[in-house]
Every structure is written in C-alpha cells, then in structure tokens.
Amino acid sequence: MDYQNITTERKEAVLIITVTREKALNAMNKDVIAELQHAFDSYKADDSLRCVILTGAGPKAFVAGADIKELNTLTGVTGHEFSERGLRLMRTIQSFPLPVIAAINGFALGGGSELALACDIRLAADTARLGQPEVKLGLCPGYGGTQRLTRLVGRGKAMQIMLTGGMFSAAEAHRIGYVDEVYPADELMDKAMAMANEIAAQGPVAVRLTKELVNAALEVGETAGCEMEKQAFALTCATDDKNEGTTAFLEKRAAAFTNK
Questions:
Q1: Strand order, beta sheet including 129-131
Q2: 155 and 57 fall within a common domain
C-alpha cells in the first residue's frame, strides 16, 4: 500500500508510525484509519520487531480528532460503519502482539485520544492537550473511549471528562493516570525510543505473553487470569529465551535472545 497519510520508519527492532496530516493537525479520516490498519496488519507477523511507537507529525498534534467534515456527513447507517472501522483499528492496536507506545506530542482529542487509549503505554509532551470533546458536536465517543477511558481513570473522572468535553493538560493527564510519563516536548521522542529499546532488549516471547496477560486482566476474573498466567509461565519455561536469559544472568552478561 502506498501511504499518503502516515509514514513508517524502522530503527533496528523498533517501528515508528507517524500520522503525517500536519496541516490538518493529523486529523483522523477514513484514509488515515485505512493506512494505520494496513500498517499494523502488515507488521503483525514481523518477528524482527520488538516494539512500536505511534506519534503525529509536527509539534502541534498527535491526532487532533476525527475529521469534522466526515462527521458532518454521517447518517445513522454510515455512522455505524464509521465507528466500526475505528473500533477495528483500536482492537488491532490493543491486541497487537508487540507493545505499542503512544508518543503524544500535542493535541490528542476525540478519536486521537481514543487512539492513544488503545496503546499500551502513553508518554506525553508537557505541551500536550487531551480530551474527549464529542459531546460538543452532539456526539458520543465512537472508537472505544467510553470503555477504555473508564477502565483507566475510573467512572467519575471519565464521566467528568466526557460529559463536559473539556481539554486538560499533560500534567493533569498524568495525575489521573491517563498518561504514564510527561517529558519536555523536545525530549519526547528520545524518551520514547529509550523506552522502546529497553523493551526490545527483553525476552520477546515473555514480552508478548505479558501483554496478552495484562489485557486479559481487564476482561476475565482473577482466578481465570491467574490460570492463564500459569499456562503462560510454563510456556516461557520451555523456551530458548528462558534458558538464555537465566544463563546470561548467572554468567553476568547481557542476554542474546532469539525469540524462541
């Protein structure tokens, strides 16, 4: 696929995906969604990758929201299709086998906020502004915001954010647990790369299984989750990665994992 609205860049074991509609504040229209979907689908089986960073072009926006011109034309029928396309992308990112880091470099509003919420780790520039302003347009969130934001920050705070539609700062997002770290804007990508490289240095099978287990913790009960963890732990015990990791520790050297 010839991308017109995103770029992909490999830096060793890390993939950087950037939304590049900078003049439109990286607003997410159907073409952006299609290209992001294609990119994540294409790299899903790439065993040489270890981590993904998702960000927006320019200093102003991560993704400033859905394209209002598209929203303006929606009917009940096309709105259902619009929501399903976005939800499919968010599910793809959340279930992607590798960790996905959102580097929130500016506005992350509406669909852009929901895109960040679908990622595993959220890092924000200190200049970022976030929010779910759909009610100001007579809409409710349609890409999973009501579900993921509520799980992340709690019912009351999620209600406040979504029912007022107001924006909040990166510092406030960090305080309520929406983002995991806040950095000076000019350090954000370096910090994201450092974290991605740190993740990439760990046992790949263990990283993938840990992501699956943490996602499952939000969906199943504790007993079922612990049973899944037991099975996953046993699986990692049978891997070359476990043998290499434990041997490297005992020999006081860096592990050379093989993803097996």
A1: 61-63, 107-109, 129-131, 168-169
A2: yes
Residue 134 falls in the annotated catalytic set: yes
Query: Domain of 214: which CATH number?
Result: 1.10.12.10
Look up the pTM and report it.
0.93
Out of 22, 134, 198, 229, which one is annotated catalytic? 134
The residue annotated as part of the active site, out of 70, 114, 172, 244, is 114
Same-domain check for residues 232 and 246: yes
Look up 114 and say whether it is catalytic.
yes
| Residue 195 and residue 216 in one domain | no
Q: What is the predicted pLDDT for the residue at 160?
A: 96
User: How many independent structural domains does the chain possess?
Assistant: 2
Which has more confidence, 244 or 101? 101
Backbone φ and ψ of 185, nearest 5°:
-55, -40
Q: In this structure, what token pair is assigned to residue 7?
A: 């770029």
